Amino acid sequence: MKIKSVLLLPAIAFLVCAGARAAEHLRVVTSFYPVYVAALNVTEGVGGIEVSNLTSPHIGCLHDYQLTAGDVRKLADADVLLANGAGMEPFLDRLTKQSPDLRVVEVSDGIPLLDNNPHVWVSFDGASRQVDNITTVLAEIAPDKADALRANAANYKAALAALDGKMRDTLAPHAGARIVTFHEAFPYFARDFGLDLAGVVEREPGTEPNARELADIVKLVREQGVKALFAEPQFSDRSAQAIARETGVKVHQLDPVATGPSDPGAARGAWLAAMEKNLAVLQDALR
Ligand SMILES: [Zn+2]
Questions:
Q1: For residue 22, pLDDT beyond 60
Q2: Among 51, 4, 62, which residue's Cα sits nearest to residue 26?
Q3: What's the whole-model pTM score?
């Protein structure tokens, strides 16, 4: 009896250590910037969870993104990949086939989509539901940290709700204002604030409109009484400026928060800061 328990001890100690190590250090990888920001907020100050972003914070939307060898290496020791989902990451199907052991969670799960548009985080409601989904999955993986994760999520969601209310109040007088944005990143945002998205400058970000498409947008801006053109800080505003010259409608910058500072301290507040700035820009543009 005595010998048996002595023999068992190292095995138990090993299991406890392995279990503790896994729980102690959880590697969370996010696919791109807005998911990174949300995950940083949910995990703030919770020990033993490391959040890193797969793609450079300058990449922006992942519409045409292909994984690099470095990305695949980074995912090799990840406990979970948090992806935006809703079609934002074109590499997910292949990745899950190549790495069947990697846990991949699409944080837009359960969020009703508008025309299959993946930019659900450009909305207070969408961002808040993504926070819920991230919290649920991380609390399930690390149940010992669930309370801390839920408390963080509640704090961050309260900050989101406060700014949402402020923006709704401030933008209410501009309901129905017609705007043109740079790429199709703002349908959820426009819905939330009652703005009318009359068109987009570039259907595919990075593909400048041809002369005919440009002429079509110029016509639309004139005929529909578009109030403002919005470029994005992530891209050149050349096309938008060309439309502005033709129509006299000014170009402003609206940020879909697809890029930002990578330092966790700065990134944590980046979504809210960008929306505060978007509010100021809209107030100026829609006067
Ligand atoms: Zn996009």
A1: no
A2: 51
A3: 0.90
